[in-house]
Amino acid sequence: MSLFSFVRKPRPAKTAQTAKDRLQILLAHERSTSGSAEADYLPMLQRDIIAAIRKHVPIGEQDVEVRMERGDQMSSLEINIDLPGAASKAG
Amino acid sequence: MTTEPKKNPPLGRVIVITSGKGGVGKTTSAAAISAGLAKQGFRTVVIDFDVGLRNLDMIMGCERRVVFDFINVIQGDAKLKQALIKDKRLDTLSILPTSQTRDKDALTKEGVETILKELKAEFDYIVCDSPAGIERGAQMAMYFADEAVVVTNPEVSSVRDSDRVLGLLSSQTKRAETEGAEPIKAQVLLTRYDQERVDKGEMMTVEDVLEILAVPLLGVVPESKAVLKASNVGTPVVLDEPSAASRAYEDAVTRLTGTVVEMRIPGERRPGLFQRLFGRAAS
């Protein structure tokens, strides 16, 4: 049993590699913004978007959703705006 | 233990032991490094910057000898000489404990500067044990440093915090703010390293951490039972009985003084064929 047990033993997942990869992606971003306050532009962006749309369409604070996905090669910014009038006009 | 004190004028070098994250071994490292420097004959003082959460005194085993502290000296209630505690094991080593009752706002940049200036005239090395975090206490501990030891565990949150601290060292310190000054010499001390887990791919390797942080390595201290045992009795690891951890700290100290020592990674033994075949069943 003990002679062959090492053959059948499943290869353990290399979690250390995952840790390294996650850190590299995260730190690349944190260093480029050099600290804390700079990463907080999303709430300001959301406020500005709401203000811009309100010039034309009445929308609430909750109708704009800003999401960020940071990747190794590229990052994406997803902005969802609920236009309340659109549904009733179309329907 | 009697050491041969250096006769030449004091070096007056300020070293901060910092990390960002708590619990990674800052105070253990500050105690071991300062005792190691003193053991080599350097006149050394270690200062506790963790105002309100005093612990260096316990790790150094002098908690019952504290009368005046760092804050008393800053506020002019005591002379520096009265607050310094001479180590009973090494005559080249002194400890400057902090206050247990005040908070970190009691630290002023001017007060810290005045005390450091006074200490520089008498000591070769002034080791500053930083509190965790990046608030005032940590800022004051690093501000006047010539050199920094960033204590890091091979674990994601510790590495991330170390990276942040390295950023602060290169921007929020006196050397960073002084035009033409040489930047702080920052180096990583990797602690709680477990070679067995590294071999299994469960822990980041020394190379992984260095690749991410991109600063020189001061040493690798293995996870060791000797560390808790030493803190239980209030003895810096390097003054306790020999262990893998004490050897790693001694090597790190020698590197701090500018001597090149080959990097040994403790516990790095490839298991033999016999052990591979029969060892697994037992583990």
Q: Briefly, what is this?
A:
With 91 residues, chain A is of the alpha+beta class. Chain A has helices spanning 5-8, 15-32, 41-54, 84-90; strands spanning 64-69, 76-81.
Descriptors:
heterodimer; A: 91 residues; alpha+beta; Cell Cycle, Chain A; two-stranded antiparallel sheet; 4 helices; 2 strands; elongated; B: 283 residues; alpha/beta; 8-stranded mixed beta sheet; 13 helices
Describe this structure in words.
Chain A: InterPro entries: MinE, MinE_sf. The complex is a heterodimer of chains A (91) and B (283). Chain A has helices spanning 5-8, 15-32, 41-54, 84-90; strands at 64-69, 76-81. With 91 residues, chain A is of the alpha+beta class. Chain B has helices at residues 26-39, 56-60, 70-74, 80-83, 109-120, 136-143, 156-169, 174-177, 195-199, 206-213, 225-233, 244-256, 273-282, and strands at residues 13-18, 44-48, 85-86, 93-96, 125-129, 147-152, 185-193, 217-222. Chain B has an eight-stranded mixed β-sheet, with helices on both faces. The mean pLDDT of chain B is 92. Classes of the chains: A alpha+beta (91), B alpha/beta (283). The interface between A and B is medium-sized, with 23 and 24 residues.
SSE topology sketch:
The complex is a heterodimer of chains A (91) and B (283).
Chain A: H1 5-8, H2 15-32, H3 41-54, E1 64-69, E2 76-81, H4 84-90
Antiparallel strand pairs in A: 1-2
Chain B: E1 13-18, H1 26-39, E2 44-48, H2 56-60, H3 70-74, H4 80-83, E3 85-86, E4 93-96, H5 109-120, E5 125-129, H6 136-143, E6 147-152, H7 156-169, H8 174-177, E7 185-193, H9 195-199, H10 206-213, E8 217-222, H11 225-233, H12 244-256, H13 273-282
Helix pairs in contact in B: 1-12
